[in-house]
Amino acid sequence: MNRALLKQALAAAAGLARGTIATCRPDGLLEVMVGDSEPQALACQVLMASEPGASCFAEGDDVLLAIVPGSGSDGVVLGKVGSYESAPSSIPEAVEAADEEADGVRTIKARQIVLEADQELTLRCGSGTVRIQEDGKVIIRGEHVLNAARGTNRIKGGSVGIN
């Protein structure tokens, strides 16, 4: 048995197929084209990621899907297929209104944005930085630091040192 036939037989036995997203339907299902010689369109649900909006699909994406009897659709898209190098390395472009304007400004508008790092997260602009470390330490540095509030501005800690 040649390698291609073996791969197809194993995928069929596991209920897996590879396809290409044809369209993202208004009802929330993805229409996925499956098959080489006579492609068929399957209406598929999506395996949800742990964070809302983390799985962003677009027309033309190669995906892996599972054929699951009784799932309420033809199949379930498990995720995108591609090399590790082609994986996104920054904030997904599918975040609403993530357009870069001519002056180099990028605005990201979403209900919630989560940036997560295992050891340390640093935000830097010019000589100002905000560092958050895994032990819970938060360091804010800048030429001038303004802390302002319309309501009560509280400073709490085991001990508070000023100057």
Question: How do the helices and strands line up, and which of them pair or pack?
Answer:
Elements: H1 3-14, E1 16-24, E2 30-34, E3 40-46, E4 62-66, E5 75-80, E6 99-100, E7 106-107, E8 120-125, E9 128-133, E10 138-141
Task: Describe the overall structure.
With about 160 residues, the chain is mainly β. The protein folds into two domains: about 5-85, OB fold (Dihydrolipoamide Acetyltransferase, E2P); about 115-145, no CATH class. Helices cover about 5% and strands about 30% of the residues. The chain contains one helix and ten strands; from the N terminus they run αββββββββββ. The strands form three sheets. Strands 1-2-3-5-4 form a five-stranded mixed β-barrel. Strands 8-9-10 form a three-stranded antiparallel beta sheet, with no helix packed on it. The chain has a two-stranded antiparallel ribbon with strand order 6-7. A hairpin with a 5-residue loop joins β2 and β3 (about 40-45). The chain is elongated and about 75 Å long. Mean pLDDT is about 75; it is low at about 95-100.
Provide a quick synopsis of the model.
The protein is mostly beta strands and 163 residues long.
Q: Ends: how far apart? A: 77 Å
Q: Name the shape in a single word.
A: elongated
Fraction in beta strands: 25-35%
Q: Output the CATH class name of the largest domain.
A: Mainly Beta
Rounded to an integer, what's the Rg over CA atoms?
Answer: 24 Å
Give a short account of the largest sheet.
5 strands, mixed, barrel
**Backbone structural class:** mainly beta
State the CATH topology of the largest domain: OB fold (Dihydrolipoamide Acetyltransferase, E2P)
Low-confidence stretches: 93-98
Please bin the fraction of helical residues. Answer: under 10%
H and E order: HEEEEEEEEEE
What is the overall number of helices? 1
CATH architecture type of the largest domain: Beta Barrel
Q: Regarding quaternary structure, how should these chains be classified?
A: single chain
What strand line-up does the widest sheet have?
Answer: 1-2-3-5-4
